[in-house]
Amino acid sequence: MIRNEGPLSFYKGVLPPLMAETPKRATKFFTFEQYKSLLTRNRDATAMTYIIAGTGSGITEGIMITPFERVKISLQSLRSHIRD
């Protein structure tokens, strides 16, 4: 691979997954901080605060991202059937 296409060939195709992962991570971090600030309100955060904020951010991310993942998987499946 390095001889034919050069060292950058190892990174070929990395941009689309990276672009898809960025909004997922941004959603998770943003919602975590929002939940944490709602739960603490002038108090110190406890372990339970982090557990609840993490659970809430994971659920929120799942609700927001799942429809897009479903479309992506459907398109990948369709392309797979077309090739066969």
Task: Describe this structure as you would to a colleague.
This protein has one domain (14-83). Helix content is 80%, strand content 0%. The protein contains 3 helices and no strands. The longest helix is centred in the C-terminal third of the chain and has 37 residues, at 47-83. The two termini are 26 Å apart. The mean pLDDT is 87.
Topology:
Blueprint: H1 2-5, H2 15-40, H3 47-83
Helix pairs in contact: 2-3
Overview features:
84 residues, 80% helix, 3 helices, mainly alpha
* Main β-sheet description: none
Counting DSSP E segments of at least 2 residues, the number of strands comes to 0
Q: Oligomeric state of the chains?
A: single chain
Binned, the helix content reads over 70%
- Low-confidence runs of at least 5 consecutive residues: none
Q: Could you tell me the strand content as a percent range? A: under 5%
Structural class of the helices, strands and pairings? mainly alpha
Taken together, the total number of domains comes to 1
Task: Write a concise synopsis of the structure shown.
This protein is mainly alpha-helical and 84 residues long.
